[in-house]
Amino acid sequence: xxxxxxxxxxxxxxxxxxxxxxxxxxxxxxxxxxxxxxxxxxxxxxxxxxxxxxxxxxxxxxxxxxxxxxxxxxxxxxxxxxxxxxxxxxxxxxxxxxxxxxxxxxxxxxxxxxxxxxxxxxxxxxxxxxxxxxxxxxxxxxxxxxxxxxxxxxxxxxxxxxxxxxxxxxxxxxxxxxxxxxxxxxxxxxxxxxxxxxxxxxxxxxxxxxxxxxx
Length: 215
Ligand SMILES: [Zn+2]
Fold this sequence. Notes:
The chain is α+β, with helices and mostly antiparallel strands. It has three domains: 43 residues, no CATH class; 64 residues, no CATH class; 65 residues, DNA Binding (I), subunit A (Orthogonal Bundle), CATH 1.10.30.50. 28% of the residues lie in helices and 20% in strands. It is built from seven helices and six strands, in the order αββαββαββαααα. A hairpin with a 4-residue loop joins strand 3 and strand 4. The protein starts with 29 loop residues before the first helix and ends with a helix.
């Protein structure tokens, strides 16, 4: 199988990367390159869209990106349960973009498997500073250790909260009580409920997820 297998030819007999669905920056003149860049940018962001991952039992277990979900499908590890109406084109064929996939073999998932991350803490706290209770863009929030690290406070779901820079400054190396600040609510430990909640927040724009997350 030679390179010809992956080539598409337009009406005038020329090879066109676009017809093949492959953006190939730099392989064409200036006229073509702009639309190809646009195409590859759109495709790149599409490949990062969230996909809900279900266990073989239909229990929601994770969220992954389209790119990873398609790899799992191509490997035969998962199958699509819900699809978007969009397609991505590989060299040889078009694939519909998955929205929800299901693992074909049951996988045991330990309770604490979801990584503690800045992104997840901000999601849990809905981008709301837990001291002044105002909503901020992620770039204007930091994570605050409720019990400061210098006092043995741990980096855990129970001791980290979303916090604006101003409140973070006010609080400094003190406990909320010492700084005269009050927590909007006690940070919740990671539970199945947190996990569901995070999946709902990530998938709120995609109604195909709803029936698997019960809302
Ligand atoms: Zn604040």
